[in-house]
Amino acid sequence: MKHIDFWDYRAEYEAERDEILAAVDTVFRSGRLILGAHVARLETEFARYCGLDFGVGVNSGTDAIFLALKALGVGPGDEVVTVSNTAVPTVSAIRATGAAPRFVDIDPSNYLMDVSKLDAAITTATKCILPVHLFGQSVRMEEVRRVASAHGVQVLEDCAQSQGGTRNGIMTGAMSDLAAFSFYPTKVLGAYGDAGMVCTNDEELARRLRRLRMYGMEGARSYSEDYELLSSYYAYEDGYNSRLDEVQAAILLAKLPRIAHYVQARQQIASFYDEQLADTDVTLPQVDAGNSHAYYLYVCRHPRRDAIIAGMAARGVSLKVDYPWPVHLMPAYSNLGYGPGSLPETELAASEIFSLPIYPTLDPTALQVICDTVHQVLDEISTGSGSA
Description:
The protein is of the alpha/beta class and about 400 residues long. The protein is built from 13 helices and twelve strands.
């Protein structure tokens, strides 16, 4: 059996190659390379998929968070309540606005924001709550909304990993003021480069986001309008250059009709893992009642995590850790005042969690090899034998 990568897009590309190349060729032949018809259509169709009215395409998931916060008026002196068990971009986007992140510990059952601690984290400086739907599963948004309403603060959902996930039948992203999405290649709906989007039901917020992504200029919705704005260089406020690329939009449009298939394939792989590994001492993912998990990642837990990863690698199976270092313990964020022990559940989880490969084209033979190898490595760990 050949080496099993943690993630590999090439089989998917081969299956979809003709359609993807045709989409790219359409862009190149269109005469419109920036903010053309493909971006506008993707904004409409992806927002509709999420159950929302407006989408604003930007150049990355990180910028989606940053620009969404800016649209909500977040800036210096404000606090944004979020978690440390997340990708660095969640926190770096907050810092880029001049605001300060305020961290809430996680629920060890699902590694998401512990909403029971949320109310106590709100201060007079809190401007926004930023729940992260990590690994493909929704935070308990009804509680987040309750706290936000009680304190008069806004909510921005980080949906970078939760495309296709739902809570009580509602798509992640449709339970707040704004939602930030990433289309990084590994995502459930992935581009072939960086890409992101902010979605909302608020027309005025959508209008401001379009302004912010385009140097603070008002009204660009097409290539020709974009050209006219660039010719005039008339800005209404400080803005940025963060436009979703027309080529990536065309690729995503070609893939969007398959998103239900992508999610279903991931859920089927997760069910296979659940069944095959139920008799081990590995803690498997727990799905909250009311949630439909999109399984961007299949996150397990074991106190001998590092030995498992080493043993699997020695046998040709790559695993991954998301995330081995909590953000609050990184040197870049040491000035925030969160030392070791300040978020105990986050810190303990970071030392024990790991992810098994999960992507739609992972074939049944490889899946069985992964599960058999997990059993073999665990046996060797328990007996103290072998390379593990």
